[in-house]
Structures are given as C-alpha cells and as structure tokens.
C-alpha cells in the first residue's frame, strides 16, 4: 500500500467516525455455488421472467474440480442448463406457499409475493439510511475505481436481488454477485455487471478468499446456523481495506416511547401476539442467530482480521401514526405495507411449528386490522453494523 493510499484511508476513517444519527442447492452438484446467466456466452445474470431459456453457470475454468466438501474450487463459471422443471430442486410447496428446499431453518416464503415484499423492504432500508449502505464514506472508499482491477461486491442473502442490482447501477465499474438459497424473480434487464448464484451460506465461502471489496448481508439471521462463524467466513472473502456491512430488522416491538414492549398473554395486542409467535418459531429453527442484530458489533470485534467496527440503529413507526414530514410519513406507510405482507407470509412458519390453522388465520387477520387502522402505535428497530478488513 502506498503512502498516498494510506493517507487517503486515514482521512476516510476520520470522516466515518463523525457522529451520525444441508445440503447443497442441487443434488447433481453437491455443495457447489450456482450462477445464473441469460446467455451461455455472457457472464451476466439471466432474465428470471423467462423461465424457458435460463442457464446455470457453475464455474469458469476448472469448474469440474471440487474440494473434499463438494464445493467448487473455483468461483469461475461453466454452464449447466436450468429450466422451470428444475425449480423443484430449490423450491417446494409448504402450506400453500413456495419455500426453499435446501435448509429447514429459513421458513419464510420464497415465491413471487415474498420477493415483491422484499423489494418494498429494500426501499424501507434505503430510505431509512439515505443510501444503499451505512458507513457510506468507508464503503465508497473501498469501491473506489482502480487501474489494476475491477472492485467486486457480494450480497449474501440477496433475496429479490434489489440491493445487488441497485449497487451494480451505482457502481457500474464494479462486479456484483448476489447469493441466496433460491434465484430472485427479476423483471426487466439486469445490469451487465451483475449476476446471481444459488448457494447456502452455511457451507462457507472458502472458494472466494480475498475476492471482494464489499460484502453485504442483510436480514439473513433466520437462515444462519452459526452467525459468528459466518462473519469469520465473510471476513476471509474480503480484500484488505474491504468492508463487511450487516443489516437486520428486529422482531422485538417498541412502544411510543421507543421502549421494548413486554409480552403479556393477557394484555398483548394481536400484532404483539403474531410477532411473539413468529420470533419463537424462528428461534426454534435458527437458534441464537435470530438475535444477531444485537450481537453483531460484539461478534465483529471478535474477528481478528476486522477493525473499525461501527453500528447504528434506526426506529421506524409501523404506519403513519406519527411523523414530522412527508418523507417520514411515506417511510411509515411503506413499513406498514411491508409489515402486512410479512404477517401474511408467516403461515408456513407458524403452521410448521404446530399452530392450528384457525389460530394462525385469526392472529394474521386481527393483527392486520390493527395495523391498517393504526390501532397500535408501535415502532420497529433496524440495526446496522460494519467493519473493515485489516491491511
């Protein structure tokens, strides 16, 4: 690293410290990372709205070589044909919705309706932060243009693909890859510098050592068995000076004074009841990882290769029962719509945990009425954390 680059790094770090508000995806290729493309001769993601012509890339040169764990030893793609009949290998029906068929811990839907909700949730995150990412000076510095190589970004738990696509557009000189248990359902043309892979983050990322300048993981805790171990894996994928960025919404609800709402079976609103039931169901499946939002800064500090750990928390009202301006009103309205869609998608999770169908439908219906009519005045809290890879 040159002296000029070192001075530049120190300047960015000073600015950033200013106060501010189990198995594999496909049994045919066990453990491998799966890359979708829209043309066998191009390294870009496919158009998911055209299921008849999708292709799946598994790694460029040396893709047939795998490690003892079954993972591909190269992140580079070769091509495997993928069509709509193959969706059964990554998706399955459960209680009237489509869910991923790879891991049992993540049991929210993975269908079109859920991806549209995730699109909306992405807008909530972006408006709340005022950007696509927290720690903006550090992230932008990590992704500065270089003469020797193209900067690279990985989005773990890409969901609907919105964040990866927006990052590819904001940084057209960077290569962006989104990783998730299922493919996103993207409409329209994808940026040339963006692609998606099907992979289970629990299998690790040894095939991507020191590959990325920014790694982003948002709302992934429910599908992660060992969150501290995942953070160590993601840190290893970063180049020196790269940024690891985390974000998640909490299942804990907050009152009008922004204090945690205590749960009482006798006094709880229907909204509290359905969130409490969902939290317990998620914890039964994911264990302590579901509380990663509160532990992330501590876990990041425990990773020896990381430094400059920071965090932020943002409160957003569920619905426009309080707001100071039109922007805050719009944000609250978007969160209300997102929350209603989230509650609607909890059926598979709660039914799989033994709740009676009538009880689930009752909670969903009554909680939705409370939120639509602004009968409950609650906040949700959104947590962000970040760290830099040591030089």
Essential attributes:
single chain; 391 residues; alpha/beta; Rossmann fold; ten-stranded mixed sheet; two-stranded antiparallel sheet; S-adenosyl-L-methionine-dependent methyltransferase
Task: Describe the overall structure.
- By secondary structure, the chain is of the alpha/beta class.
- The termini are close together.
- The longest helix is centred in the C-terminal third of the chain and has 19 residues, at 326-344.
- The chain is built from 10 helices and 12 strands.
- It has one domain (3-30, 87-389): Rossmann fold.
- Residues 1-14 have a biased composition (Basic and acidic residues).
- GO terms for molecular function: methyltransferase activity.
- InterPro entries: SAM-dependent_MTases_sf.
């Amino acid at each position: 690293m040159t002296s000029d680059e070192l001075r530049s790094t120190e300047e960015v770090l000073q600015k950033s410290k200013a106060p501010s508000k189990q198995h594999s995806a496909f049994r045919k290729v066990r453990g491998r990372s799966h890359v979708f493309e829209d043309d066998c001769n191009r390294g870009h993601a496919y158009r998911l709205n055209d299921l008849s012509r999708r292709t799946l890339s598994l790694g460029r040169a040396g893709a047939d070589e795998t490690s003892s764990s079954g993972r591909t030893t190269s992140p580079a793609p070769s091509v495997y044909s993928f069509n709509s009949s193959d969706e059964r290998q990554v998706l399955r029906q459960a209680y009237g919705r489509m869910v991923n068929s790879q891991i049992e811990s993540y049991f929210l839907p993975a269908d079109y309706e859920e991806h549209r909700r995730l699109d909306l949730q992405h807008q909530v995150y972006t408006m709340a932060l005022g950007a696509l990412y927290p720690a903006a000076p550090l992230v932008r510095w990590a992704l500065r243009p270089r003469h020797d190589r193209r900067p690279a970004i990985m989005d773990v738990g890409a969901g609907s693909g919105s964040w990866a696509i927006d990052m590819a557009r904001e940084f057209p000189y960077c290569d962006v890859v989104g990783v998730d248990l299922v493919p996103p359902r993207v409409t329209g043309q994808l940026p040339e510098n963006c692609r998606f892979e099907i992979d289970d983050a629990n299998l690790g990322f040894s095939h991507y050592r020191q590959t990325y300048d920014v790694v982003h993981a948002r709302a992934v805790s429910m599908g992660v068995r060992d969150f501290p171990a995942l953070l160590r894996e993601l840190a290893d994928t970063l180049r020196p000076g790269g940024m690891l960025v985390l974000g998640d919404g909490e299942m804990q609800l907050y009152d009008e004074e922004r204090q945690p709402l205590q749960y009482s079976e006798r006094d709880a609103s229907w909204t509290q009841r359905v969130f409490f039931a969902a939290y317990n169901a998620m914890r039964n499946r994911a264990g302590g990882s579901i509380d990663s939002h509160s532990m992330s800064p501590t876990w990041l500090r425990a990773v020896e290769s990381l430094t400059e750990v920071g965090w932020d928390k943002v409160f957003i009202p569920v619905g426009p029962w309080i707001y100071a301006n039109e922007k805050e009103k719009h944000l609250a309205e978007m969160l209300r719509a997102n929350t209603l869609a989230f509650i609607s998608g909890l059926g598979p999770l709660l039914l799989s945990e033994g709740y009676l169908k009538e009880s689930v439908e009752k909670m969903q219906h009554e909680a939705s009425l409370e939120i639509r009519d602004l009968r409950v005045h609650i906040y949700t809290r959104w947590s962000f954390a970040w760290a830099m890879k040591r030089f």
